[in-house]
Amino acid sequence: MSKKFFVKIVTDPDVDLRKCVVGLACAAQAISDGYDVDMFFAADGVKMLNSEYISGINESGTLPEGMIFGMVKTITEGAKNIYCSTGSQAANGVTKENADSILLKGYQDWMTWSGPPGVIALSAESDVQLVY
Question: Model confidence over 12-45: pLDDT tens digits?
């Protein structure tokens, strides 16, 4: 039986972008290695689901060209569950009503709006927890 990973991104990438990128990289690696991965984006970590924000990271030269998009694609196509905090999104100006113009393309197909119940459920079901 494969171990089940729970990766939670809560750090504000404006404060510590490297920590958020490492979280994405670890989640993508676990998926590539064949593990079941659940993710939860909360607090200001929800910025990592913002399409303009991710494009800005790519254009900044902080990472090799396209690397951030590759990690995000691995996660959005391979994670078992991806949740985001409804309240945290709202605190960052994103609601279910305006999300289509702000969040990563196709989010409706892979993301679940949630709150503490989602965090508790995903973490309780996991074998390994990584928080960034």
Answer: 999 999 999 999 999 999 999 999 999 999 999 9
What confidence tens digit (pLDDT) does each residue in 8-19 have?
Answer: 999 999 999 999
Distance of alpha carbon 12 from alpha carbon 37, whole angstroms: 22
Residues in CB range of 121: below 8 A, 6 or more apart: none
Residue 119, judged by CB atoms within 10 A of its CB (0-12, 13-18, 19+), counts as middle
CATH architecture of 4-131: 3-Layer(aba) Sandwich (3.40)
* Residue tagged 């060209």 (tokens): 65
Asked if residue 68 lies in contact with residue 59, where contact means CB atoms within 8 angstroms, the answer is no
Q: Which is nearest to 7 in space by CA: 81, 111, 94?
A: 81
Question: Sheet harboring 128-131: ordered strands across?
Answer: 111-114, 81-85, 36-41, 4-9, 128-131
